[in-house]
Amino acid sequence: MTTLVLTVVGDDRAGLVSAVAEIVQTHGGNWENSELAELAGAFAGIVEVSVAAERADALRAALEGLSATLAVTVHTGAPEGTASAPHSVTLDVVGNDRPGIVHDVSSALSARGVSIERMSTQTTDAAMAGGRLFEASITVVVGPDVEVDDLVADLERIAAEIQVDVMFAD
């Protein structure tokens, strides 16, 4: 089996997921993991699909047929068995929204050689204080050479500087 990672973007409308799923199904693919969302009137997502190696090129070509309604980019994923994570840590970030939060947190992670496996962010109206509230849930892959205590100390220092709360879960 070959793993393909699809990125999809287009103007939001009914039927986009169904159109992609139909092509995957028709070509014998298996829709495995995905994150899909409507953001500011646009539909965007990432989908992991497995398909028999001999059918991968036909699947790619069929997905190109969606170009009138959806931009689809196909990437070949890592071979099976090579994408295992040594250790994952999840952190939640919450605070008053301001520019630079994602930059500051992701820079601290990168400086320690930590890779972001999954990240979800949103801003909402802060009910009591007014203004906007920023929330993020970030799962990171920590290699064996990374001292988690040092990473936590870095993130706690940054959290104090930018006035957000960072909570960790192993």
Automatic annotation (TrEMBL):
Q: Which CDD domains match?
A: ACT, ACT_GcvR_2
Which InterPro entries is this protein grouped with?
ACT-like_dom_sf, ACT_dom, GcvR, UPF0237/GcvR_regulator
The source's superkingdom equals Bacteria
Please list the GO biological process terms of this entry.
Answer: regulation of DNA-templated transcription
Ranges for domain ACT come to 90-169
Under the heading Pfam families, the entry gives: ACT, ACT_6
How is this protein named in the record?
Glycine cleavage system regulatory protein
> What species is given as this protein's source?
Microbacterium enclense
